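HOLO CASE FILE
Compound: NAP
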Amino acid sequence: MTDHPRVPLAGVIGHPIAHSRSPALHTYWLKRYGIRGHYVPLDIAPADLQAMLHALPKMGFVGANVTIPHKEAILKIPDVIITDRAALIGAANTLIFRKDGRIQADNTDGSGFIANLRQNAPQWNPAAGPAVIFGAGGAARAVVAALIEVGVPEVRITNRTRPRAEALRSDFGAKVTVMEWVQAANMLEDAATVVNTTSLGMTGKPDFRVPLDALRPEAVVTDLVYTPLMTQFLIEAQAKGCTVVDGLGMLLHQAAPGFERWFGHRPEVDEETRRAVLMS
Ligand code: NAP
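Model generated. Tokens follow.
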């Protein structure tokens, strides 16, 4: 017996999990690069999380992605090694089951967010002006951390539930300012980067409606929602002349580092990858 069986296994842990695009994405990459391995959905209830986490490596798993509702809970499990960026964000989305038996928890949402903007809006300059963030949930935390890291001078946050936005200010410091949800449109003047991190605009949810009159055409506007790909928010920003970037690229880019760690090959995030996921 070796430390790991010859065919490595990985998966995505969530509850529910049937909606996840991650199995289609990783399975596509495995086939594309001719790698022997499997990536499966793992529906694990919160009460079973700790026991299952310790069982998975024994079953041949080399790692996993983590999604709702486990992204924060995973950091509270004893003996998990937490990377600095996962600790800062307060959530993990990528687990490595190390050969020494330890579990490492990382967060690649922020790097995936930045990689998506750099790939699809190559002229984007984070230092060109303030970033405006709508929403203050788990995804917003990763986005704010990443934007500060790449040199955004000011991050303006607004959220329906103001204390969640205030919590981001106290965690991320003086570059963050908080504004009232009802005055959200006023934050857009001179913004260089505008991000919807709320779940509004997703198929089945109400549209995300904010007057975009103050938006400059030089702004790069992105939405974390990727069903539909072109949200009403992005359609309106595009009509104002802005460069818009949909959220699917973030999903693809956040997955790449995990795939590389588990299966030993850095996968391409390109048109072919997008098509494969969209057709799944
Ligand atoms: P979350 O922690 O549950 O946060 C949800 C956010 O949406 C909060 O700011 C919440 O405001 C806001 N919201 C929900 N319903 C609202 C409403 N009716 N009116 C105003 N605000 C509302 O979720 P999350 O993990 O941050 O995810 C947020 C979105 O990002 C989801 O659509 C998710 O699918 C997407 N996402 C995409 C990627 C990607 O790779 N593209 C990665 C991560 C997440 P309150 O605080 O007031 O409730």
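CASE NOTES: Residues 201 and 207 are 4 Å apart (CA to CA). Residues 109, 135-140, 159-161, 164, 197-200, 202, 206, 224-226, 247, 250-251, 254 surround NAP (CB under 6 Å).
CLOSED: yes
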